[in-house]
Design the sequence.
């Protein structure tokens, strides 16, 4: 563990030091989003409305975009000083990342136990630089926690399988697609537990904060403007890509719904197919990527399932696929290359400024990765398992 922490923290600090040495302006993360979570928990405790106005957090005021159940989960943060919440972000995320990597390597049967410990150090340091994971840590976002909840809940089957998926859905709606995925893979008991847990989170929200719950579920949850401009460069979902091409209007909404529907069907179909042939981790990863692609608004840090995809690609994909994946998804020193003075950390190629229309390509790098992955997996080009070395298989029945 000390080696993992040391390597990963070095990877975290290197871009900051490099930019400071080259252009004299350090790159600093402000862990903003964890302070918004803290503000949501505090507002709930103080009887203040969650959705009628922005909540004061750190250097400004920001909307609370999560269900009331999430505010309940965040209430303990209100008893912790803001500086301590921000200080705990990196240690907490490092623990989550190490847990996720170990679980992936263990279930992928990638190495012996002794070799797996060494591999964990290298893989953690590498996936730390997958841009969505980098941004999740810099902001103090909850995406990696949700990934861990789903992954740890569904890689094996036990009596409570599905409950954590329901809790994750109660915190943030997008994991709800995993409930549909469980039904597609005929794990109906797990799907029922996930749906029941989701319903329980909604019920608890109405019990604790009835006015906020009524307001949220009567329309706030569908208000995309609370996240930002749909056509903005930061929206890396199908909806954002369509909006940048067509602008706002009924045609944009209709085309998004059609394309998102196609993506859901295709994503779940491929994920179900690979699950049924025993590739459980890949099936989960494809479903996770699908949730982000079809979401109305997806910041780059929402694409955290690119982390597991990177690990599986390193284990089983041709080197050429790994190279393309690295170009499209890894955090690059964009601000250093362009000489920008910014407090933001390294970003992916989707953040490059417009250039002769090519921004429609590199600006949608994650969607291209999603579509390309579906094509490669469907064609059987993605996995390159060695003789006698198979991805984990689980029963299609839920206990």
Sequence:
């Amino acid at each position: 563990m000390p080696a993992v922490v040391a390597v990963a923290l070095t990877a975290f600090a290197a871009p900051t030091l490099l930019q400071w040495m080259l252009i004299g302006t350090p790159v600093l993360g402000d862990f903003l989003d964890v302070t918004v979570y803290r503000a949501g928990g505090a507002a709930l405790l103080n009887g203040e409305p969650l959705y009628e106005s922005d909540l004061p957090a750190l250097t400004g005021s920001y909307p609370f975009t999560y269900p009331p159940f999430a505010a309940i989960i965040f209430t303990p943060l209100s008893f912790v000083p803001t500086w301590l919440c921000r200080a705990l972000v990196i240690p907490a995320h490092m623990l989550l990342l190490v847990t996720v990597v170990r679980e992936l390597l263990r279930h992928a049967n990638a190495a012996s136990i002794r070799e797996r410990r060494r591999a964990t150090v290298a893989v953690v340091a590498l996936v730390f630089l997958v841009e969505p994971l980098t941004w999740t840590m810099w902001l103090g976002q909850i995406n990696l926690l949700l990934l861990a909840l789903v992954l740890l809940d569904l890689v094996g089957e036990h009596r409570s399988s599905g409950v954590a998926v329901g809790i994750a859905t109660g915190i943030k709606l997008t994991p709800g697609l995993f409930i549909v995925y469980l039904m597609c893979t005929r794990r109906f008991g797990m799907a029922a537990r996930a749906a029941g847990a989701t319903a329980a989170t909604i019920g608890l929200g109405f019990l604790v904060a009835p006015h906020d719950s009524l307001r949220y579920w009567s329309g706030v949850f569908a208000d995309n403007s609370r996240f930002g401009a749909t056509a903005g460069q930061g929206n890396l979902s199908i909806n954002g890509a369509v909006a940048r091409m067509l602008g706002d209007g009924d045609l944009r909404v209709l085309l998004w719904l059609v394309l998102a529907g196609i993506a859901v069907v295709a994503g779940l179909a491929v994920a179900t197919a690979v699950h049924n042939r025993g590739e459980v981790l890949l099936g989960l990863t494809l479903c996770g990527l699908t949730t982000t692609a079809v979401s109305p608004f997806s910041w780059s840090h929402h694409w955290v399932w690119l982390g597991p995809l990177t690990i599986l690609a390193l284990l089983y994909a041709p080197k050429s696929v790994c190279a393309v994946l690295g170009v499209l998804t890894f955090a690059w020193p964009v601000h250093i290359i362009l000489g920008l003075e910014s407090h933001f950390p390294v970003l992916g190629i989707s953040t490059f400024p417009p250039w002769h229309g090519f921004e429609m390509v590199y600006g949608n790098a994650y969607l291209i990765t999603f579509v390309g992955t579906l094509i490669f997996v469907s064609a059987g080009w993605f996995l390159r398992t060695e003789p006698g070395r198979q991805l984990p298989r689980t029963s299609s029945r839920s206990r």
User: Anything to note?
Assistant: The longest strand covers residues 55-57. Residues 384-399 have pLDDT under 50 and may be disordered.
